[in-house]
Amino acid sequence: MALLNITSPHTSGPLDTGKVMQLVLIATIPGVLALHWHFGWGVLINIVWASIAALGAEALALALRKRPIKFYLSDFSVLVTAVLLAISIPPYSPWWLITVGIVFSVLIAKHLYGGIGYNPFNPAMVGYVVLLISFPIEMTTWASPRQAYDGQLPSLIESITVLFSGRDALPIFSLDGITMATPLDILKQNSTLTVEDLWTKFPQFGQWGGLGWEWANIGFLAGGIFLLTQRVFTWHAPISMLVSLTVMSAFFYDSGSSISGGSPLFHLLSGATMFGAFFIVTDPVTSAVSNKGKIIYGALIGVLLYLIRLWGSYPDAMAFSVLLMNFAAPFLDYYTQPRTYGHAKKDRSKSEGGQ
Fold first, then answer.
1. Is the model more confident about 317 or about 30?
2. Where are the transmembrane segments (predicted)?
3. Strand ranges in the chain using DSSP code E only, listed in sequence order
4. Integer Cα distance of 39 and 167 in angstroms
5. Which of 47, 145, 221, 225 could form a disulfide with 86 if both were Cys (CB 3.0 to 4.6 A apart)?
């Protein structure tokens, strides 16, 4: 299948790759700060270690490919991959887990296909799925928010100790309250309690979604709006994803019975919804290119996200939904590319039928 060629006239702006990546990193700050406040130092340490590992893996790949290291490191793209993966995995993850995910994201999902701009799949999500399938226990052990139990979150020094020595090295992680199932996981496994009972029984639930997660989602929503105002991407893919997720969750919501899939507000403010919508779905390399294609691309991700959350094996399925649609992005572009400027729209069915 030929690559999409969109004809002139073109518009150009002041944003180059490095500037775009810097804006993306800045936009993650509200959500990261919310995660830090509710879950402690773990997410920040994840980001720092992932960034160090990513820079090393990128430099190694560039050296092996005989490419200018300084030139490519200065575009910040590998740091974006590192930050997105670090946010996706549980806080207080061991150093080796983060390193394995980063090495796979950078060396296999990115450079094996030719580097930035050539990778067919989102590198951060590839690394996440590899870790989830290979190390399910480590990838599903999430720290509970500070408000969910009586106690203090690990200090900075304790968090660094956990990074290099594992959770067993810190007595606080032997307490039942420090790690809890996520609200999405509880809702998925529930078959006896009503939604109202779940909110009463489990401290993980907040006002609208998961305790801590709802504020993190609001933070990533704020970052996404900032990127929209900077014209880093268009509204088509993220908004269509959120709309389709809302429609699906509203259609299957039964006001909170024991088999309820959760309200639309719960799905919008739990898990990685806003993070995925504005920082993963909008990846310009692996998503659809045309505006119509972006709308379909985002809408199908929202549908897949809800279906896997409700009936699949994983409570939060952003990575799987995105990677499945990465497969379909070239197909969507082929059938939704705009007409050539100055020419009538081609009747594709007639042209293909006459071949």
1. 30
2. 20-37, 43-64, 71-89, 95-113, 125-144, 208-228, 235-253, 265-282, 294-311, 317-336
3. none
4. 15
5. 47
